[in-house]
């Protein structure tokens, strides 16, 4: 659906593009949410409450709604259209109510799709000289249907062979990682047994403290850390480093985590 807004701009609701009337190429493009918000007001030009806008544009589409989000996208729309000398595309009527600016001329360029009922009544109107042509398709012959089934069978067989081949070369035996909880001052650390076998506990704790302090992370009750580093990637530093800062719960040892992963931590 396309709209001519104030004879200055063509808005295409299908992709959110804004095109100057004398141009064939889009001049700019609205974000998905901004375009959905504008299209809602174009379809509902009457005064409408903010709660209805939040429900129809955000909640009904599975998005988290808030007045802060609505204010942000209203501001973005107004700013975008102000670049084309169109002020206040959406206005605040009163506290809690909004409206598409009635002073802005808006022309719908595309007619809505004709419904089946309209098309049927149109064809049955006496004296109608513009009935849509009827296109008859030729049914496929038995030979043509056989060729189609043969091609489809070959394609399916090829895909199946490829899947089997990829699964065979990409399959690797999985080995579960055993984690050991170790106290370290006020911090609770969970380390892999492989990590603890490769380095002494003192050095492990010293390196953990250096990384944690570098990230400005404090130890708090109900939180735990997972720390891993490998010192074989480079000769004079610790190479790759992984640190996860997690919240723990009774029913879930890792409620949520902030993960940090980087190379060449220490020279």
UniProtKB/TrEMBL annotation:
| Keyword hit for Iron | no
Q: Which UniProt keywords apply?
A: DNA-binding, Membrane, Transmembrane, Transmembrane helix
Report the transmembrane regions from the record. 147-166
Q: Which InterPro entries match?
A: OmpR/PhoB-type_DNA-bd, Sig_transdc_resp-reg_C-effctor, WH-like_DNA-bd_sf
Q: Point out the coiled-coil segments of this chain.
A: none
Report the residue ranges that make up the OmpR/PhoB-type domain in this protein: 24-99
Pfam families assigned to the protein according to its UniProt record, in alphabetical order: Trans_reg_C
- What protein am I looking at? Winged helix family transcriptional regulator
Organism encoding this protein: Erwinia sorbitola
The organism's lineage?
Answer: Bacteria, Pseudomonadati, Pseudomonadota, Gammaproteobacteria, Enterobacterales
């Amino acid at each position: 659906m396309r709209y001519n807004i104030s004879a200055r701009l063509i808005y295409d609701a299908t992709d959110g593009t804004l095109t100057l009337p004398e141009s064939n190429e889009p001049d700019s493009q609205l974000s998905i949410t901004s375009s959905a918000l504008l299209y809602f007001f174009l379809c509902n030009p009457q005064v409408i409450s903010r709660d209805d806008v939040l429900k129809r544009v955000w909640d009904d589409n599975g998005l988290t709604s808030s007045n802060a989000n609505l204010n942000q996208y209203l501001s973005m729309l107004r700013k975008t259209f102000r670049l084309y000398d169109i002020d206040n595309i959406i206005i605040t009527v009163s506290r809690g109510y909004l409206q598409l600016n009635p002073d802005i001329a808006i022309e719908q360029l595309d007619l809505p799709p004709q419904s089946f009922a309209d098309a049927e009544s149109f064809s049955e109107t006496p004296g109608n000289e513009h009935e849509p042509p009827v296109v008859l398709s030729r049914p496929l012959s038995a030979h043509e249907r056989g060729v189609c089934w043969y091609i489809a069978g070959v394609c399916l067989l090829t895909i199946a062979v490829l899947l089997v081949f990829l699964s065979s070369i990409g399959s690797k035996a999985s080995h579960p990682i055993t984690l050991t909880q170790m106290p370290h001052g006020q911090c609770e650390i969970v380390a892999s047994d492989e990590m603890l076998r490769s380095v002494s506990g003192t050095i492990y704790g010293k390196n953990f403290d250096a990384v944690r302090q570098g990230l400005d992370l404090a130890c708090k009750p109900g939180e735990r850390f997972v720390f891993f580093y490998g010192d074989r990637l480079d000769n004079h530093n610790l190479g790759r480093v992984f640190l996860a800062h997690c919240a723990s719960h009774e029913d879930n040892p890792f409620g949520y985590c902030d993960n940090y992963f980087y190379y060449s931590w220490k020279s």
